[in-house]
Design goal:
Blueprint: H1 3-13, E1 26-29, E2 34-39, E3 52-58, H2 72-94, E4 106-107, E5 114-115, E6 121-123, E7 127-134, E8 138-139, E9 142-143, H3 145-164, H4 171-194, E10 196-201, E11 232-237, E12 241-249, E13 252-256, H5 263-271, E14 276-277, E15 286-288, E16 292-295, E17 303-306, E18 324-326, H6 331-344, E19 349-353, H7 359-362, H8 366-371, H9 386-393, E20 396-400, E21 413-418, E22 421-424, H10 426-435, E23 454-456, E24 472-476, E25 479-482, E26 485-488, H11 498-511, H12 521-535, H13 553-561, E27 568-570
Parallel strand pairs: 13-20, 13-21, 16-19, 19-20
Antiparallel strand pairs: 1-2, 2-3, 3-7, 4-7, 5-14, 6-7, 8-9, 10-12, 10-15, 11-12, 17-18, 21-22, 23-27, 24-25, 25-26
Length: 574
């Protein structure tokens, strides 16, 4: 249909009840682009994800930006760039509320500081499709067609032109966006070959603007990162060329130092090094192995038949810990479960900060050992397991410490942060450890490292609410409403965008198709991840959405583990 038909329909709705906007559903030709109004909320207060508006342009149009895509990384970065262009333009031309609820807004799923695959921009050989939200305006529940006409016939075309017309695109910025994504991926892929778990480039800006922002601190106030010479690695990148920085080797690494000297800031860069960052973020070339996992304690979480016996066993009253379950985990049991669940699905690096760890799981010092006999202590602390994790299962650990020097005995590398500058103090730490006359006793029972994989049952994953209707949604990055329950993801610190959480919520239901009472959680997660890799994020939902972003299979597994209704059985060892 021609856009004039849309204009006529719109005129006829003026002053009517908001439901009359449903008459606008359809596909309209604007010449430069095609607008598909696929789903309109029935209430002006309905959240943006309930509306589906699709803008399609042909890639062969001469005036449209159509950068040549050489590989999957470039495609993801190109789509990410276009999403940012549309977001900026929509904020400029239609970024204010004009009426009730979301009236007057034209928005897109706003990207953060990372370059992610997103469902809000989809590209195939012929088309670029942008999925946005248009807050059709109302006063109360009465249609205000005049503002709607301005939005659909003045503001929307302007936003599309600013986002997609070649003449309005800063091509050098686009190329830089793609190049940084490729260089970052290249660098991350080099880590295994170099025997590293992470790399932090010299001149990186690690501190953030403030505690609630992921944007970088002003370069005038931040101290650029500089590697100690002993840990310096040089790498040739495909686009940027030679780059220098600090390589953190595999094994056990401590990050030590006084308070407010940058220990946690460095660890934060490592935990988010699983993502590619946008130009200007300051952490563009701070990368970590893809299966690096931030571990912390979080009391109250659900645990379902997880083997935590590596850390906790011989509980009073013979409570079993090889298949431990609880609806209200303590600090130590939650952290033990977090570690073992991460290992179960393939984590190869554990990242920890003593500030968010359970002290009684991390260490028993010499004085406590003398007072409380080991026979009365069911916990084997992490200090006595960390080397076994690495030597028997090739799982490295990076641990931030400010007050527990006993870890010097088990560390391969010790990095001290002084005024946000790293220093290699490994030799000094080992010398101190060797010179002290009194040492704590190692308490590990020394039995083989085992991983008991679990098989989830599809019947325990129910997305329906108390009325029997499908009800899966997320309004916060660390909280999912799933059927009759709420999944608390507060301790999953590597989730960075709400769009990831929304995608995970739907992926839980999608994963049921692979649950056959035989496949392990890890096998199921791998199958879901492969489907997304081959078919895109649309595969996880029967309805088109512009509100999804890529997530790791690890986070999907961790989310399922926090579903209180989850039922599993441990796989029998063959």
């Amino acid at each position: 249909m021609d856009k004039q038909i849309l204009r006529n329909k719109l005129t006829s709705t003026d002053g009517k009840d908001y439901g009359s906007y449903q008459s606008l559903l359809g596909t309209y030709d604007y010449g430069l682009f095609r607008l598909i109004i696929q789903q309109i909320p029935k209430d002006p207060y309905a959240p943006p994800h309930t509306g589906i508006y699709r803008i399609q342009v042909k890639r062969n149009k001469e005036q449209i930006i159509n950068h040549k895509i050489a590989n999957k990384i470039q495609e993801i970065a190109f789509r990410d760039f276009l999403a940012r262009q549309f977001s900026k333009a929509s904020e400029r031309f239609a970024g204010s509320i004009r009426g009730t609820g979301y009236s007057g807004l034209i928005t897109i799923n706003k990207p953060g500081q990372s370059i992610l695959e997103r469902s809000c921009v989809v590209i195939d050989d012929d088309l670029i499709e942008i999925r946005c939200f248009i807050g059709l305006p109302a006063i109360g529940r009465k249609v205000t067609a005049g503002i709607a006409e301005q939005m659909l016939f003045n503001e929307l075309p302007e936003i599309v032109e600013q986002s997609l017309l070649k003449k309005n695109i800063d091509v050098p910025s686009l190329i830089k966006h793609l190049d940084i994504a490729e260089d970052s991926q290249f660098l991350r892929n080099k880590l295994v070959e170099l025997g590293l778990v992470s790399f932090i480039a010299d001149q990186s800006i690690l501190p953030r603007f403030n505690g609630t922002s992921e944007k970088p601190m002003s370069s005038a106030n931040a101290i650029p990162f500089k590697s100690p010479e002993s840990l310096t690695v040089e790498i040739d990148l495909p686009h940027l060329g030679k780059i220098r920085g600090m390589g953190i080797p595999v094994g056990v690494t401590l990050i030590v130092g006084g308070g407010y000297h940058g220990k946690s800031t460095l660890l934060n860069a490592l935990e988010l090094g699983i993502y590619d960052h946008i130009p200007g973020d300051g952490r563009e070339f701070c990368v970590s192995l893809p299966k690096s996992v931030k571990i912390r304690a979080y009391s109250g979480r659900n645990i379902e038949k997880t083997d935590i016996s590596q850390f906790i066993k011989n509980l009073p009253f013979q409570k079993e810990t090889t298949a431990f379950s609880t609806q209200n985990a303590s600090g130590s049991t939650s952290q033990a479960a977090n570690i073992m669940e991460a290992v179960e699905v393939g984590a190869d690096v554990l990242l920890m900060d003593e500030d968010t760890c359970a002290t009684n799981l991390m260490i028993r010092d010499m004085k406590m050992q003398k007072l409380v006999n080991k026979n009365d202590e069911p916990i084997t602390t992490f200090i006595d397991k960390v080397r076994q994790f690495y030597l028997e299962n090739n799982i490295s650990t990076v641990l931030v410490l400010g007050g527990v020097g006993d870890y010097f005995d088990v560390a391969d590398n010790v990095i001290q942060m002084i005024k946000y500058e790293p220093f290699d103090v490994t030799e000094a730490a080992h010398r101190i450890a060797a010179d002290l006359p009194f040492k704590r006793e190692t308490e590990d029972d020394v039995y083989p490292f085992t991983i008991r994989e679990r098989i989830p049952f599809a019947k325990s994953i129910d997305p329906t609410n108390k009325y029997g209707k499908f009800s899966v949604y997320a309004k916060e990055t660390h909280r999912i409403n799933f059927g009759k329950t709420v999944i608390d993801l507060t301790d999953l610190e590597q989730l960075i965008e709400l769009s990831q959480t929304k995608a995970i919520a739907f992926a839980i239901e999608y994963a049921k198709k692979y649950m056959n009472n035989d496949r392990t959680l890890r096998e199921i997660i791998d199958l879901v991840s492969e489907d997304i890799k081959m078919n895109g994020l649309d595969i996880i939902s029967p309805r088109i959405s512009g509100n999804f972003a890529w997530f790791r299979g690890l986070e999907l597994a961790f989310t399922m583990n926090r579903l209180r209704e989850l039922d599993v059985v441990q796989k029998k060892n063959s």
